[in-house]
Amino acid sequence: MATYDIAKLHPVFVRQMEALAALDIDAVMKNYTDDAVLLRYEGVSVGIDAVRETFTGYLTLKPELVELQQYVETEDTIFYRAIMNLGGEPEHAFGTLVVRDGRIWRQTAGFGS
């Protein structure tokens, strides 16, 4: 399996991982466009306020990147699979970030094996 140097990946992904690690909701939200949409199996968050509400709840789980298992990017799309600690428990995470004007415009995120 490939090893990834997080600092050398897409700048939006790097900023998002840093903001999540800092548990900083304001820093997280700076990564999203005002018309961002977040799709999860639990529901769809449409617009910046709904995305903020979703991430405010997510940050209570104190997400921590354990291992970036797979990663591929283009100029405007990031696709990843990782192991994250959520509430102290390891979870398999996957998702896609679509970037517009240097911020996340569309995102999919899920957890499972």
From TrEMBL:
InterPro entries: NTF2-like_dom_sf (IPR032710), SnoaL-like (IPR037401)
UniProt cross-references to Pfam families, sorted A to Z: SnoaL_2
Superkingdom of source: Bacteria
Domain SnoaL-like: 15-106
Protein name: Nuclear transport factor 2 family protein
Organism expressing this protein natively: Streptomyces antimicrobicus
Classification of source organism: Bacteria, Bacillati, Actinomycetota, Actinomycetes, Kitasatosporales
